Amino acid sequence: MAERRSTVLLLLGMIAWVAAGLVAAFVLSVVAVGGALAWLHHGLGPELVGEQSVLLYVLVGSTAFQATLLAGAVRQGRLAGNGDWRFGLGIGRIRHVGRVALLCVVMIGCLLGFVLLSARIPALRDFAKSVTPDIMARLEEGGPFAVMAKVALAVVLAPISEELFFRGWLWESLRRRGHGVLSTACLTALPWLLLHGLDSPARVLFLLPAALVFSLARHYGGSVLASLVVHVTNNAVAVLLEVIAVVMG
């Protein structure tokens, strides 16, 4: 009973931190971007900055949220590891490197297979477009600095913060409470999926294979670095495919 109560409190704390991060990201984007746009509107005129306002809100808000997740992961990891945040986050040498590399290949194969199927099935292509975040669906918009910010967010910041938070600190904390691999994988993948489905619930179905592969990498690799490598690979290839689509389109 005490273990179950401890797990419930752990999950409630995780949900509270994610909710606080969302609120903080919203407030920061409204205050920071809103103030900057007001100044630019006054100095340059609304016609010069109006088209970029939504993009700025999304980029600043997304970056702030991912930074909040990263800060939460490091903080909780330090507490869980009694001051050693690396231990608390499950950062260590990757075991079974071959299996992790194979999972990277599987992830790439899934992406390429989906692209090929989407080219043949219009309904599937429309579904993919409907669940792709707007800033990635229109990767080329906003100029070179905006494009670099989008790529950095998708390929670097998001994978690091999400992996350290969900399959780092949370995974380690659940395993130390006696949870098996399957329950730990479910309890870390479910909030990750739901988080990505906040603005588009159908995206949960789209990301189910990724959640499975990331969890397998975390288990077989024995380190959060293993799932991080697969996550970065997935996002980098997805961005690369989007770039190719823009160039060829």
Q: Could you explain how this protein is built, in words?
A:
With 249 residues, the chain is mainly α. It has one domain. Helices cover 85% and strands 0% of the residues. The protein has helices at 2-44, 46-49, 53-80, 85-89, 97-120, 122-131, 134-137, 144-176, 181-196, 203-221, 224-248. α5 (97-120) packs antiparallel against α10. Mean pLDDT is 88; it is low at 43-49.
Largest sheet: none
**What order do the helices and strands follow?**
HHHHHHHHHHH
Which structural class is indicated by helix and strand composition? mainly alpha
Measure the end-to-end span: 58 Å
Q: Low-confidence segments, ≥5 residues, pLDDT <50? A: 43-49
Helix content: over 70%
Q: How many domains, as an integer?
A: 1
Write down the Rg: 19 Å
SS field, number of helical segments: 11
Number of β-strand runs: 0
